[in-house]
Amino acid sequence: MNAIQIKKEFNAPVETVFELLSKHATYNIAFAPIQVVRVKDSTDPERPDGVGSVRRLGLGFIKPLQEEITLLTPNQRIEYKIINNPLVKHHLGIIEFQPVDENKTLVTYTIEFQARAPFVSKLVLAQLKSAIKLGFSKLAKTV
Asked: Pfam families per the record (predicted)?
């Protein structure tokens, strides 16, 4: 299985960083010009971006990627997977939150990925790693 891991410290309490990264709309800032839109709410009315929610990613009217939130443990962990994509054999995203102190949080973002086409996975993961590092740097400046 191919995987990447990115670690980033945020100068904010874990609750603040978790709330930021648990909202689908946040990823519009982090990964611009990629657009992220929630297309299905979770069953929890208090947290529409929670477990069972689905977001679409792409540009303009073309948003071919769908991700479903599969686990959300407040202030600790978020997991999601790509759904309904014939080009992806396996994709699991895991975002973990660890307080360093009362005003600093370490975020560890792990992505496991396997494309159906050979040799594509490493290329996709390299692009994702670069985009996530840049996106997290942008977000870290907002908190």
From this structure: Polyketide_cyc2
